[in-house]
Structure formats: structure tokens, C-alpha cells
Write a structure and sequence with these properties.
The complex is a heterodimer. By secondary structure, chain A is α/β, with parallel strands linked by helices. In chain A, strand 1, helix 3 and strand 2 form a beta-alpha-beta unit. Classes of the chains: A alpha/beta, B alpha/beta. At the A-B interface, helix 2, strand 4, helix 6, helix 7 and strand 5 of A face helix 2, helix 4, strand 4, helix 6 and helix 7 of B.
């Protein structure tokens, strides 16, 4: 019993020393500070500003009107009326339209043939041709949807007139023109804001990547300058790594707790990102995610040998990491082996769970599979962090012994 | 002139030796680009997303409601994985991540259709994933329109209309859809062409800063300058030349993967594409020289250069168009060579635009490439003054 108390006391002493040492390491090192504190704030703000307007409106298109009639002018006006497109040019022929297109002045072309009105008046089908540019995903979507709905609306009006002209009563004619009244609703992000879609995932990825690079930078510096020995307790032969890893982890948990309070609180409000989850669920889930990501960072950091190694080797992975989560690109389109590999990264499960809690209002019970994965990752990476730290300390302190220096 | 070439060659030989000596140098130049390209080639090998799970709430339970559900299931993107009892159950499944949309068919659906009364049907699609939302909403909308037209056709032919006449009644204005430049609307065609150059540019910045930064960190800058015959220009050219050459080879590997494996069409000029890629690489190398000369600190230069290079993707406007951004952000988007490279890539690979439309992009990227001229005196100072060395 006494031994246990002694052991715990010694653990607490070490823990406090490690925490103090870690705070000093982070806050006296402008490089680490830039990555572990400011990068999250700078990136979140810059990306949010870039996606500021959230939706794409008023994409310029060109209409080639060869019909020059009342009916064709009405159709052109319908393209202009919607929020997503406006008729910026009315080129005379395809050649001119093509030129405008290559000059990036228009992103879609509608061709109305000469016989447009005559066919409508004759009760036949009138043809129009749509050329939509699919080289930009969002442009294509806005242009195509707007054009198709304007044409559909125009067609329905004509259809109704025809039925009424044949002597059908108005209510029946309306039902005959549109038997199924279809309505589509977008849940949780009603205007399909781009920032509301992308930022939750981006913030989660930035958290992990800055932790990996930042802790890696400190690990690399310690190795390069032989500072790991500061963690070896004075006059002790056996090194206990548990208080070291726990102490270091709590420092990062505290730092990110502060910065994330701002990002997930005020910043979220400023940019009106979807906020349907309960605060409690968000805090518990994010704390678990931070534990997993910090453990991952501490484990990886023991592998870096110079100050800049983590930055050189990890910076490029941000985009692959984001893609592996299955958010930018639907998971059904990702080869399943790659998708499963991605589950090894804390960010993948965290993005899934966080979006469901924060944007959709899911409870912790709804994200149980993600919580389970993050808990397993915390334990596994935590174990690797203990192992890696032990190994690194043995090597540095062992070297000191060999060099005849004090174990200090 | 001959002296300059001689000194450049000496500096280049020294740099090749450094590449052979430093493992990190080789990792950055040879292995990481290939790993990154390989990742994206594998990632996009499936190409399109099919069978995204959705649920239906069928409150009608009739032949017609089942027919509509069957048709939705048969469409390429949605896959009717669950049949929920209520909207509440459907929304819970969505929060659990099991489905991405719920289709609701109210009671009396068939009765209304047969009785010539407008029959409502609704879809609730998650807006938390815009890509998935786009694919699902397009497919479900198309299916409902087709289904609706089928009902109309039966109605009108029952009234004695000829089929042609009935079609003219159902669809008075018919449109021919021409999807330009990405006929399969393959999402991989949008993303792969821009992610691989992104990887190349991040690693270009990293390796270029590394190439100069290590001279400062380890205090070998004066030796480097001496190798270039005390000419900063010769020393810099000689240092960057082998790096550029290897990066150009990597760029060819990238273009080969994009065209040959991912299957991105090459509708324009390959020559313009190659010239553009060279300007793109030189532009980012030049920016790296600028950053490291101004900061004179490898680690800080890596942080800032890295931060700047990662931002390029968002500001290229490929996903969220530059046109939609606020005005200051639109100006900012002009400060990334990648923005011009994306435009050039779309023009030359996808659109097959005449080369003349890509000349401005080439011009802007070349402007970035002359930046080092401005900082040569500063770089010389940094390289000769030991006060600047060893800082990290």
C-alpha cells in the first residue's frame, strides 16, 4: 500500500514536471507556436472568407435566339429570371458564342431554333439545345438546373394552354400537366452553402494536421538538439513513460481546448455554419477526437530526427487525408480498401461523427460506431506513443551514459 | 557568359552531390511525388459514386408507389437500402449515417393519380454533403419526371390521342442536352487533374526551400556561393537546375497518369500544356527563393511557404468558383500561380481551347518566375553573413 502511494506521488511529481517542460517547449518556440496555435486560427479564417458568400449565383450564359419571336423572348426572359443564371450575351451564331465561352465570359449556351414559336403554335414539340460547361462542377450544376427548370416551366404553361384550348376544365388540366407534384428539400444546409458543407470537415482535418506537424516539430527538435534527456528524471534508473505521455498529451488537450472554444463557438456563429448539435455532445466527441489525434501525434513524433522533418514529410498529406474521409468525394466512389485504410486516421471517423452531431443534431448514441473507432485509435496510438517514447529515451539517455555524461 | 555557364555547371554538380548525400532530399524529390500521384490514381480508379443508400417512406403501399420506388432504385446513384415506417425513423437513420436521403410517398398517391388529382411526392436530401446532394437530387428528380410523363402518356392515349400528339402535350419544349468537356460528369475528372498538380506544387515549394535553407541551417552557404564563382545568379541557377529537371520528369509522370490511367481527355495542345507546366514549376520555385531569401530561416520559410502552397487549392476556384467570392478574395486568388495553371489545364485538357486563350495564363505564371531577380542582393547578403546561419 505504501509502495503504491509512493509510486503515485512520484508519478504526480513527474507529471507536473513534464507539463511544465512541455508548456515551455511550445511557448518559447515560435515555430511550434505558429503551427500549434495560430495555424488553426489563420486557416479557418482564410478558408471561411474564401467561401464567404456560400452560394454561386448569377452565372452568365449566352442565348442564341434564331426565332426572334414573342415566345422565344419569353423563354430567354425565363432564363434571366432565376437566381442562378443571367443572360449576359445574345450572340448571333454558334461561332460567336464559342468565342465568348473560351473567353470565360459565359458558362452555358442555349440555342433556340428558327421554328421555335411556329412549332409551339402548331401543337408540336419545339426543340432547344443546351450546352452546359461541365469543367467546373458547381457552375455546371447551377446552369443546368436553372435552364432545365425554366424550360420545364415554359413547357408546362404551353401544355396547360393547349389542354384548356381543347376544352379541358382548369383543375383537371393542371393535374394532367403535372400529375406528380414533386418537392425536394435540402436538410441541415437548406441553401447548400459551400462553407457550411466544407468547413466542418476542413476544421477537423486542420486540427489533426497541425497536431501531427507541431508535435512532430517538437519531437524532431528534441532529437536534433538532444533535449529528450530533459524528460529523464534526475537520479532514477528506471524511466516511467506513462506520466510523460499523459503530461504531454494534457498540454495539447488544453491548448486546443482553448483555440477550439473560439473556432467552434464564435467563429462558427460569425459564418453561420450549421449548429444543430448539443454543446455537451460536441465537447465530449471533440475531446475524444483530440485524444486520438494527440496520441497519434505523440507516437509519430518519436520518429522525426530534425526540426523540419515533420513539416517536410506531412504537409502534403492534408488533401489526401481530407479525401479519405469520404466527404469531398462520396465514399461510394472510393475503392473500399483505401476507404478502410482511411479509418486508421482519427480525422476520418471524427469528420463523419462531427458533421452528424454538429450539422445534423445527432446524439452521442447516434455516432457510437465512430466513438468506438476513436476510442480504439486512442488506445492503440497511445500504446505506440508510450513505446516510442520509451525507446527514444532509452536511446538518448543510453548515449549519454556511453559518453560518460551524467544521466540528467 | 562562358564564365557564368561554367560556374552554373559547377554549382549544379555540387547540388547533384547533395541530392545523392541527403536522404531527405531524395525522399522529397523522388519518392513523395510518386507516392502522392499513386494515391490519387488509386483513389479515382473507381471514377463515379454509385448506389448511395437512401430510405423510402411509402405510406401508400400500392402498385404505383412501388413502381416509383423501383424506378428510383434503378437509377445510377440512389440505392433504396431501407424502407422506413415514418419520417422520424428516416431522419434518425440519416443522423446515424446509414442513409443520405429519404423519399416520402404520402397515402392516396395512386388514388390521386388515377383520379386525375395532383399527387404530391417529396424527397429530403442531406445538405451536409453537396456532392452527394447533387448526384441524388438530379437522379431522383429525373426519375420522378419520367414517372410523371409515363402517367401522362397513359392518360392521354386513353383519351384517344396519338402517341406523337401525346408527347407534344407532355413535353411541349424538348431540350437536347450537350454536356461540354466532361461528358460522363465524372467527378474524378474535376478533382484528379487538380489534386496531382497540388501535390507537385507543395513538394516543389518544400524541396526548393529545403535546397537553399539547408545551406543556411548548416552554414554551408558561403561554400555554395563560392562554387558559383561568387555569382549569386550562377549559384542559384546551378542549384535549382537539377531540382527543376527532376520535377519536370515528375510532371511528365503526372501527366502520363492523368491521361493514360485516370483517363482525362487531352482535347487541346500538349505542347502548351508542357510549357504551362514548366512555367508553373518555375513560378513556385521562384516564390520559394523569394520566401527563403526574405526570411533567412529554413523552418519559418517552410511554414510560411507550406501554408501558402496549401491555400492554392481553395483559391483556384475549381470547387467554389472565384466568380462567387468576395472582391478582396478574388484579388487574392490572382496571387497563386496554381489559379492560372488550373485555368490553363481546363482550357487545354478538357475544353480544347485554341492556344491563344492560354497565353495570358502563361504570361502571369512567367511573371512569378522572375521574382528571384528582385531578391538576389538580399540572398547574397544572407549567404555571406554568418549571423543569418544556423537559425531555425
Amino acid at each position: 500500500m505504501n509502495r503504491l502511494i509512493r509510486q503515485l506521488k512520484s508519478y504526480r511529481g513527474q507529471f507536473v514536471a513534464v507539463v511544465r517542460n512541455e508548456f515551455r517547449a511550445v511557448f518559447t518556440d515560435e515555430g511550434a507556436l505558429l503551427i500549434l496555435v495560430f495555424a488553426l486560427l489563420i486557416y479557418s479564417t482564410t478558408y471561411s472568407l474564401a467561401y464567404g458568400p456560400q452560394v454561386l449565383r448569377n452565372v452568365p450564359i449566352g442565348v442564341i435566339d434564331n426565332s426572334h419571336t414573342e415566345a422565344s423572348r419569353r423563354l430567354t426572359a425565363a432564363f434571366d429570371a432565376g437566381p442562378n443564371t443571367y443572360v449576359a450575351y445574345e450572340p448571333t451564331d454558334m461561332e460567336e458564342a464559342r468565342e465568348l465561352f473560351f473567353q470565360r465570359r459565359i458558362y452555358g449556351i442555349v440555342y433556340i431554333p428558327e421554328n421555335y414559336e411556329r412549332r409551339l403554335l402548331d401543337g408540336e414539340q419545339a426543340d432547344v439545345a443546351i450546352y452546359a460547361d461541365a469543367s467546373y462542377f458547381l457552375m455546371y450544376r447551377q446552369v443546368f438546373q436553372e435552364l432545365v427548370s425554366a424550360i420545364g416551366l415554359t413547357g408546362a404553361t404551353v401544355g396547360l394552354q393547349r389542354l384548356v384550348a381543347r376544352g379541358t376544365e382548369l383543375p383537371q388540366a393542371e393535374a394532367a400537366v403535372q400529375p406528380v407534384v414533386y418537392q425536394s428539400h435540402n436538410l441541415f444546409n437548406p441553401y447548400l452553402g459551400y462553407g457550411s458543407f466544407a468547413m466542418p470537415a476542413i476544421i477537423i482535418v486542420i486540427i489533426q494536421q497541425t497536431l501531427l506537424v507541431g508535435i512532430g516539430m517538437i519531437g524532431g527538435t528534441w532529437w536534433e538538439k538532444g533535449l529528450y534527456r530533459r524528460l529523464c528524471p534526475v537520479g532514477r534508473r528506471r524511466i516511467s513513460t506513462l506520466p510523460i505521455v499523459a503530461g504531454r498529451a494534457s498540454v495539447y488537450l488544453l491548448i486546443y481546448g482553448v483555440t477550439l472554444t473560439y473556432i467552434l463557438g464564435l467563429h462558427y456563429k460569425l459564418f453561420h455554419y450549421p449548429d444543430n448539435g448539443t454543446t455537451g455532445a460536441v465537447i465530449v466527441f471533440i475531446a475524444l477526437y483530440l485524444s486520438a489525434a494527440i496520441a497519434f501525434g505523440l507516437a509519430l513524433s518519436t520518429l522525426f530526427r530534425t526540426r523540419e522533418s515533420s513539416l517536410l514529410l506531412l504537409l502534403w498529406t492534408s488533401i489526401p487525408v481530407l479525401m479519405l474521409s469520404g466527404v469531398s468525394f462520396p465514399r461510394e466512389g472510393i475503392p473500399s480498401a483505401l476507404y478502410r485504410f482511411g479509418r486508421l486516421l482519427p480525422s476520418s471517423s471524427a469528420i463523419d461523427g462531427f458533421i452528424r452531431i454538429r450539422s445534423m443534431g445527432a446524439s452521442l448514441a447516434d455516432v457510437l460506431p465512430e466513438i468506438r473507432t476513436l476510442a480504439i485509435l486512442t488506445v492503440v496510438y497511445g500504446g505506440l506513443a508510450l513505446f516510442g517514447t520509451h525507446w527514444v529515451l532509452c536511446r538518448t539517455c543510453g548515449q549519454d551514459k556511453k559518453n560518460g555524461a551524467d544521466v540528467r | 557568359m562562358i564564365g557564368f555557364l561554367h560556374h552554373t555547371a559547377t554549382a549544379a554538380r555540387r547540388e547533384i552531390g547533395r541530392i545523392a548525400d541527403l536522404r531527405m532530399y531524395r525522399v522529397l524529390l523522388f519518392y513523395l511525388p510518386l507516392v502522392a500521384f499513386g494515391f490519387f490514381a488509386l483513389f479515382f480508379s473507381k471514377g463515379v459514386a454509385r448506389n448511395i443508400p437512401i430510405a423510402v417512406v411509402d405510406n401508400d403501399h400500392t402498385a404505383l408507389s412501388r413502381k416509383l420506388i423501383e424506378m428510383i432504385d434503378a437509377a445510377p446513384t440512389p440505392y433504396v437500402a431501407y424502407s422506413a415506417q415514418s419520417m422520424a425513423e428516416g431522419e434518425r437513420m440519416m443522423r446515424e449515417g446509414a442513409i443520405m436521403a429519404v423519399v416520402l410517398i404520402p397515402a392516396d398517391f395512386e388514388k390521386k393519380l388515377l383520379g386525375n388529382v395532383p399527387a404530391p411526392a417529396e424527397a429530403y436530401i442531406t445538405g451536409t454533403n453537396i456532392t452527394v446532394n447533387g448526384l441524388l437530387s438530379k437522379d431522383i428528380q429525373t426519375v420522378v419526371t419520367t414517372f410523371s410523363a409515363g402517367v401522362q402518356l397513359q392518360l392521354f392515349t386513353a383519351r384517344g390521342m396519338a402517341e406523337e400528339e401525346a408527347m407534344a402535350q407532355i413535353l411541349p419544349v424538348r431540350f437536347n442536352r450537350h454536356i461540354l468537356f466532361n461528358p460522363y460528369i465524372n467527378y474524378g475528372y474535376y478533382l484528379a487533374p487538380s489534386f496531382m498538380p497540388m501535390m507537385l506544387l507543395i513538394l516543389t515549394v518544400m524541396v526548393s526551400v529545403f535546397a537553399i535553407g539547408t545551406e543556411l541551417k548548416y552554414g554551408t552557404a558561403r561554400e555554395w556561393l563560392h562554387c558559383g564563382g561568387d555569382s549569386m545568379a550562377a549559384a542559384l541557377t546551378g542549384k535549382l537546375l537539377p531540382v527543376t529537371a527532376i520535377l519536370v520528369l515528375q510532371a511528365f509522370v503526372m501527366l502520363f497518369i492523368l491521361i493514360g490511367i485516370v483517363g482525362v481527355p487531352l482535347n487541346g495542345s500538349f505542347v502548351v500544356m508542357v510549357i504551362g507546366t514548366l512555367c508553373f514549376l518555375l513560378g513556385y520555385q521562384a516564390l520559394s527563393v523569394l520566401i527563403v531569401a526574405l526570411l533567412a530561416n529554413m523552418r519559418l520559410a517552410l511554414s510560411l511557404g507550406g501554408g501558402y502552397s496549401v491555400l492554392a487549392f481553395t483559391f483556384s476556384g475549381l470547387t467554389f468558383p472565384v466568380m462567387a467570392m468576395w472582391t478582396p478574395m478574388r484579388w487574392l486568388s490572382r496571387c497563386f500561380p496554381f489559379t492560372y495553371y488550373t485555368d490553363l489545364f481546363i482550357d487545354q485538357m478538357l475544353r480544347g481551347a485554341p492556344a491563344v486563350y492560354s497565353l495570358p495564363d502563361l504570361g502571369y505564371m512567367s511573371l512569378f518566375a522572375v521574382l528571384p531577380m528582385l531578391v538576389l542582393p538580399r540572398l547574397r547578403k544572407v549567404c555571406t553573413d554568418p549571423n543569418y546561419w544556423g537559425r531555425a
